[in-house]
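2024-03-11 09:14:02 INFO receiving multi-entity request
2024-03-11 09:14:02 INFO entity count = two
2024-03-11 09:14:03 INFO echoing inputs for audit
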Amino acid sequence: MDTTAQILPGTLDLLILKAVSLGPLHGYGVLLRIGQISNGALLIEQGALYPALFRLVRQGLLKAKWGSSENKRRAKYYGLTAAGQKRLREEADGWNRLATAIGAALKARPEEV
Amino acid sequence: MKLLSSIHVLLTSVFRQRQIEREMEEELRLHLASRADDLERQGLPRAEAERQARIEFGGYERYKDECRDALGWQIFSEVLADVRYGLRQLRHAPGFALTAFLMLALGIGATTSVFSVLDAVLLRPLPFRDPSRLVLIKENVNKLSDRINLPAPDVLTFAQQSKAFNHVGGFERGEVELSGSGEPVRLASARLTADVLPALGVTPLLGRSFTAEEDDHGQAVALLSYALWQARFHGDPKVLGAHLDIDRKPYVVIGVMPSDFEFPVLAGRLNHTAIWKPMSFSPQERADTGDNFQYGAVARIKPGFTRAQAEQDANRVAAAIQAEYPAAMGIRVSASLIPLQDDAVENARPLLRVLFGAVIVVLLIACANLAGLLLVRGVRRRREIAVRQALGASGGTLLRYSTMESLLVSVIGGALGLVLAWACLRWWVSLLPESLPRVGEIRLNWEVSLFALAATLATGLLCGIAPGLAALRSSANEALKQGARSVAAHARLRSVLVVGEIATALVLVTGAGLLLRSFARMSAVDPGFEPVHALAAAFDLPAERYQTQPQVNSFQEELLRRLNTLPGVKSAALATNLPMAEPTSTRFFVAEDYYPPAGSSYAVESHAYVVGDFLQTMHIPLLRGRYLNAGDTADAPLVVVVSRALAERYWPGQNPIGKRIHWGVDERSSLPWLTVVGEVANTRQGPLDSEAWPQVYEPLVQFDRSFGPEAKALGVHGGSMRIAVRAAGDPRPLANAVRRTVWSLDPQLAVSNLQTMEHAIRQSQVPRRFNTAVLSAFALGAVLLAALGIYGVIAFSVAQRTQEIAVRMALGAQPAGVLRLVLGSGARLAALGCLLGLAGAASVTRLMQSLLFDVSPFDPVVFAAGAAVVLLLTLAASFLPARRAAGIEPMEALRAE
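2024-03-11 09:21:47 INFO inference complete, emitting structure
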């Protein structure tokens, strides 16, 4: 059985925020971190990450800063802003509520209806 | 704050554009490199790792585009980037860019500037304050006519009783003799009431205008035109207070009007009014109730009144006026207001409409050519677009790029066109005589300029979007495979454009052809006299000095005696009317044996009193009977000579000799009968393309008797006469002798309109010559542009088909066959265009009926000739590429691919 899943629209932003909340990352780092925290279960085209990063910066949820990477290359690091933190909390709550509701719905048996 | 921050964003986006692009590139590259490093660590060879990294990344260009989109606030800088990109593209195709720019610049520049000048000259805006509130008051009088001028008392009544106007001024056009300083001259003049200048909102440049008191008390004061002041007084400000002899009466100059002042405004032509005097109505004029409807009334509508309200008010006054008229006259009067502006431009409208149409046609053809160029360009870039598409550039980006380029072409071309139009305009204006009023105020006509810009922009937009969309619809793969072969659809579109161009050009050519033929027809009209070696002049004996009939008669006799003895003069005579440039003089008469159809008015004609052998001097051919001669004295039987037009109208198919007429409108009146003794050819009062009115020639010496007892009331006659001189050779050297002969009798008498009759005919042709020349120039431009269009299509198709032609030739086709093949494709387009053009012409030439003379709007000769000209020119345009095709070296061409 295929254990990977196409990413749901709108969830990429949430994953990025989550990945970055654990510490500033450059673009490729974000990708690796998402792979790590989702146990490689989520597949995206790697390039799609960047428009999302740019958009989040523009929305003020991420801040970008140029620094040097682990192998001494110049890289752009993304970190969470206060607004980003707040958004992450809200979105996570929303997801959890939705997931619980959907999960409950799917577990329902015919006699419970 | 919001504004400030957006400006900040804008500026940073502009200046940081390059940096942002660089950083984006760096960031994405780092990603690819990092990924490749990881993959290499997993055991892949470096090259394979890099390839794998790129595949995992996805469409590189597309994500870059999306990143740019995500930045959002960069819209402005994106446009800039697109502009830069477009300019770069254009630099790579200088031939294309230059052709497009030049065509647009010329198309817009020439047409817009010419139209602006014509529009300004023909529709001169009135040089008055707030001219939209100025109206002429006209009366509608039953039994007489609608919208006619007013009797003197009515002008005063309107001035006193109306409530809707700030000022109501009366005026009357006329001519005066100016003598005393320098040569005596006759000048156009006008009498104005004191309210006219305040109504117009104009004040003199120098000095002052006259007051109501001066007007009422008949003070001899005068205002001079700027032109007269410059010409006769060299712009000397000391002219104020100077004395002038106007009609032999001393006047004091109190002011000089501004150079752009014109009043009364004449429809469609310049008014050279040089002297304005107070109206100072005479007691007789003030008593002319319901008579002499000859005074204009100009009024300014008060603020707060609409024109309809003002008209209502004027009609209230008209009702009061009607009450004053003797009830027995049974006259009903109402008032109409005509905006002064409308009155001034009425005659110019049909011509302007045709010219506007011509400008639009030329512009559309230029746009069609632009569209053709852009489409070719689109075809050529198809492959490039496909490559970009394959590399992942988004559809929106590609569309933006292709649109940007064609928009750039149209914007730059349009702007160049307007600059050129502006430059041409300055140039045209410098060619115009400075005496033309308000020359300095001629501006680009914004309607045409806007239309030109909008048309080019729309063309650019459409031609950018259409190929872009087409490219997007077809898959990139297909386009790459097909290469430049998938151009059939574009070729068809371009052919449609060219056919349209040829058709519209032919419509314009047909219009110009009709005007040219009208001109030829007019030139071929028999003027009814011999203009060669004929000289004419005019004089007006001032009533102040020539008070009795014997004084006038002896002046005339002595003048003719002296003129006839001048060396080089074959004969000289006088008449009240000369052929060509004279107003028609209408008079009612009753013809024996003629009963006007029920409901129609009595016979009207244009008449001339003659002194001496006038008909013989002008060489007006005698058709029947005899000329007037020395035997027709004051005591001899009353006689007239009539023109063929009169004879044909009143006695069709009969011999007019011996028929009788008398003046007046009453068949039973006691006025004496005049016997027709001769019938002569028609002459015309106006230009040769005007109608030949029925004419009567009568000996001036019989004037008194022909009017019977009423003649006494008519007073002294024959003071205003035209001189006709038949010279043995070139009449021009005689001009000075004629003038000196007049002055030998009266040194203060002005000699006006001294010209050869050939010159008079040429002058009368000027308006038609002008219309014809302008429309022909537009038609020429249209045909040349259309030829350029067909050249472009054929040349491009030859370039596309080089290989095919080479193969044909390699297989044995002869150059002549190839030539025929290519010419044939051009001829097909031309023929189709001409067919459509003829149909189009047939449907629009009717609109220019009023500009034609003696030519049907469907004249087959003009239609055929126009089609032939367009056909030949377009064939010539396709000949060049055809020859190139025939000269293709098959082996070389095939190897080149």
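2024-03-11 09:21:48 INFO post-check: Chain B touches chain A through 25 residues (CB under 8 Å).
2024-03-11 09:21:48 INFO post-check: Chain B is about 55% helix and 15% strand.
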